[in-house]
Design goal:
heterodimer, A: alpha+beta, nine-stranded mixed beta sheet, 15 helices, about 30% helix, disordered N terminus, B: about 325 residues, flat, cell membrane (chain B)
Chain lengths: ~500, ~325
């Protein structure tokens, strides 16, 4: 049902585009020049319906992340190169053995006037780490030894860690690791320290926020910020074109292409936001054979995938996560399609005539299309790829457990986090089942090496082994696409999930 | 059997039907892959985390036990709480009922006079140019599915011409009725066609019937013959169709809600199923089943009043 509905509704965007094309070629939109204060910006996001909540620790959806960031602060957040930047933490310093971290808090206040204190930080983290709950940031913060951590004074926290961890600031920037006032449990009218304060909330419809004039980083330019929910991409596009919203989050490359030259919408692309991949499970047939994995790497025609699936709004990948992020192994040569070599590797692996099932679903945009294109590219190699579309709601859990080859995509996170969550023996979401003691040991070495250059070398060594033998065929990086009306300024093109993505305190209406 | 006894029997039967629907929905949702914990974990399906979510939601208890508990609550008119957000299910339903009811009531208020008028006009001028035009337009319009009509109307009137709001995003429907125009057009298009066709057919039959001929022979005025004698009989078959339409509208028309961003019951249902939020799905099943039973019962009673000779089937 949902598939058909989406397919049909997808027509709207196309038709609207056709209707606009009839208007004659518009002049390229001129961006507003100088920041201006005032006004209400309405931003349309996809939502989760009435189940949405304002508890920032429960944030899961993009809209919840964007709202949380407007109302709350984290101790750190991710910069444009996806490395941690201090936020509520003014600075951090670690003991020589990397197991004790002293965080100095910025002078900041919650919306009700109370100062942000070390106790609030400890209480927030204790809430996230509560074993009876299942907050998303829990796994990132799990290495904190809370009973041995303490508030030195009101603006200094000292965290004790269970093991040496030089990347602790990554954990402070984890998805959902927001600081809330000590004792906060009721988030019907949330109080945070962020650039906007709460006004009203209708689940599944809208959230209205207003400017926090006392924000520690300077008051936002907008007077008011309203998040509205429109689940269909075509509806977000139409609402923007019809002047009902000024900001439409997460548009398709097709929409972007149709409207890029028009005068009714400015298209903002954030490169390297979402990696597009296929995941091969290395612990079971047929992909336990490294030759067959290499054959798959060589079968992918990456430029064609980027052109057809992403409509050109992206870049080719090199089977490594985090292109242009801190510690990315940019020196590994780019893989190209090589059908002959793939064929001979398939023969060598004894896999000629083999039929492989490629599990996919509509859980993320473009996955089914990419699977279909890839199955087509594998034709004539001796290996047949059969695309099977599964249930979108349970897809990530299904493919973590079963099958041998599946579509995969991920938003931005530091390369260290990607490795910790997905590529260690004990990782919770190890979809490729990559579990190697020597790789685990390299990770331990990296995160306990304080010298940045030495650490970078260890990360590159790990990436070289993943590039050669890993289970992720990362064929591309999709741009994150946002549309605004032409009078909106201050939109950053940092990757989705980083600090500057959907950051409305820097946005203005011209 | 008296009308009152009949109504009571139907209501008792309706109660059984509602229970059957709720049980069926429960079994179907159980048969779906994944549960609320899996759906909530999404692209971060760490098995340990899913287990913790499951425990926090109480999903680690056996399903029949949870269902029995929910049924016991239903007897006290307590629909339980959403698994995902912890808010009472009744709140979800109230949030969704508003927009759905606004659309359904306005659609019906416009639908009835328009379709009866069109049907009667066509019947009175049976075979004329007007009849043929009305027939072709309604058959043609009826062949266009809602989503297609919606897409075209939005592209033309919402985006291209800019006369009407293309969606209802962030809009209070009653405060800004302009946002209702396009959705109402889409919702009206097909029911107007089907009901006016039924009224026309009924009217044509009635005008050719023995009792109308008899009434004319008695010298009753033509106007009175048409409106007081022919029309009520002609409406009886259309009433069933109106009931089906009302039922369809009150269930929240998912496609129309999605295209126009109207957060009614259809959207609530889609979100609840995607999230495997069983108590909310069951609450919606109760609402939809009760609506269907009541609307159909009302339709049968109205049809009986309009045309008392019609059989009242038990």
């Amino acid at each position: 049902m949902s598939l058909n509905r989406r397919g049909f509704i997808g027509l709207t965007a196309g038709l609207s585009a056709a209707a606009l094309a009839g208007c004659g070629g518009g002049t390229a939109a001129t961006a507003p020049t100088a920041p201006r204060a005032g006004g209400r910006l309405r931003a349309a996001f996809a939502g989760g319906g009435a189940k949405e909540v304002l508890d920032p620790h429960l944030a899961n959806l993009f809209v919840e992340a964007a709202r949380s960031k407007a109302v709350f602060d984290k101790l750190a957040d991710l910069g444009g190169d996806v490395s941690p930047r201090p936020r509520l933490a003014e600075r951090w310093e670690s003991s020589a053995d990397l197991t004790r971290w002293r965080i100095t808090l910025r002078q900041a206040a919650f919306h009700d006037g109370r100062p942000v204190r070390a106790q609030d930080v400890l209480a927030s983290y204790a809430r996230i780490l509560d074993p009876n709950r299942a907050f998303r940031a829990r796994s990132s913060l799990a290495l904190i030894d809370l009973p041995n951590s303490r508030a030195v004074d009101d603006r200094t926290v000292e965290f004790a860690l269970r093991r040496p961890f030089v990347e602790f600031p990554n954990a402070l920037a984890a998805f959902g690791a927001y600081v809330v006032p000590e004792g906060a449990e009721d988030f019907t009218a949330p109080v945070g320290s962020g650039p906007f304060s709460f006004v009203s909330f209708e689940p599944g419809r809208s959230v209205l926020l207003k400017r926090n004039p006392d924000y520690w980083e300077g008051a936002p330019l907008l007077d008011e910020l309203e998040f509205v929910i429109a689940n269909e991409e075509s509806a977000r596009t139409n609402a923007l074109l019809g002047g009902q919203v000024e900001y439409a989050h997460d548009l398709t490359p097709t929409t972007a292409r149709s409207h890029a030259g028009g005068d009714r919408m400015t298209v903002h692309r954030s490169p390297n936001s979402a990696v597009q991949a296929f995941a091969m499970k290395v612990d079971r047939p047929p992909f336990y054979d490294p030759d067959l994995r290499e054959a798959m790497f060589l079968l992918a025609d990456r430029p064609q995938l980027v052109e057809s699936v992403l409509a050109g709004s992206g870049q080719v990948g090199n089977d490594l996560f985090g292109k242009d992020y801190q510690h990315y192994a940019a020196d590994v040569p780019q893989r190209e399609r090589d059908l002959d070599r793939a064929k001979s590797l398939i023969r060598k692996a004894g896999a000629e005539g083999l039929r492989v099932r490629l599990d996919t679903s509509t859980a993320a945009a473009g996955m089914v299309e990419a699977a279909t294109v890839f199955a087509d590219q594998a034709k004539g190699s001796g290996l047949t790829v059969e695309v099977v579309t599964g249930n979108k709601d349970s897809y990530w859990s299904d493919t973590l457990k079963g099958g041998s080859l599946s579509s995969f995509r991920s938003g931005a996170m530091p390369i260290e986090t990607h490795i910790a969550q997905r590529l260690l023996s004990g990782s919770g979401t190890n979809v490729t089942k990559w579990a190697r003691p020597e790789f685990d040991a390299l990770y331990e070495k990296a995160v306990s090496t304080s010298d940045a250059a030495l650490r970078g070398e260890v990360y590159r060594e790990m990436q070289r082994s993943l590039h050669a033998e890993g289970g992720y065929l990362m064929w591309g990086f999709a741009d994150w696409i946002v549309g605004t009306t032409p009078n909106v300024g201050g939109i950053s093109t940092a990757p989705a999930n980083t600090l500057d993505w959907a950051r409305f305190d820097k946005v203005w209406l011209g | 059997m008296s009308l009152a006894a009949y109504a009571w029997r139907r209501l008792a039967l309706g109660l059984v039907q509602v229970l059957a629907v709720v049980t069926g929905v429960f079994l179907l949702v159980q048969a779906l892959p994944g549960d609320a914990a899996v759906a909530l974990a999404g692209d971060n399906p760490d098995p340990g985390r899913i287990e913790r979510i499951r425990a926090a939601m109480g999903l680690d208890r056996p399903a029949p036990e949870r269902f029995a508990e929910w049924l016991a609550g239903l007897a006290r008119l307590d629909l339980g709480e959403s698994l995902v957000s912890g808010r009472p299910v009744a709140e979800f339903l109230l949030d969704g009922v508003g927009p759905t009811a606004v659309l359904a009531v306005l659609t019906l208020v416009l639908l009835l006079p328009i379709s009866v008028l069109v049907g009667v006009l066509a019947a009175l001028r049976e075979g004329s140019a007007l009849d043929r035009v009305l027939t072709s337009v309604s058959v043609g319009l009826h062949a266009i599915p809602e989503f297609a009509l919606a897409v075209v109307l939005i592209a033309v009137f919402g985006v291209q011409l800019g006369w009407l709001p293309p969606t209802a995003v962030g809009v209070d429907l009653l405060a800004e009725p302009a946002a209702l125009v396009l959705p109402l057009l889409v919702l009206l298009a097909r029911p107007i066609c089907s009901i006016s066709r039924l009224v026309r057919a009924g009217m044509v039959d009635a005008l050719a019937s023995d009792y109308v001929r008899h009434a004319r022979r008695l010298g009753i005025g033509e106007r009175r013959v048409r409106l007081a004698h022919a029309l009520p009989n002609a409406l009886a078959p259309a009433v069933q169709q109106v009931a089906r339409t009302a039922d369809w509208l009150l269930g929240g028309v998912i496609v129309v809600e999605a295209v126009f961003v109207i957060p009614g019951l259809g959207t609530t249902l889609v979100d609840a199923v995607a999230g495997r939020d069983l108590p909310v799905v069951q609450g919606l099943a109760v609402v939809f089943a009760v609506t269907t039973v009541v609307v159909n019962l009302l339709a049968d009673l109205v049809a009986f009043r309009l045309s008392p000779r019609a059989e009242v089937a038990a």
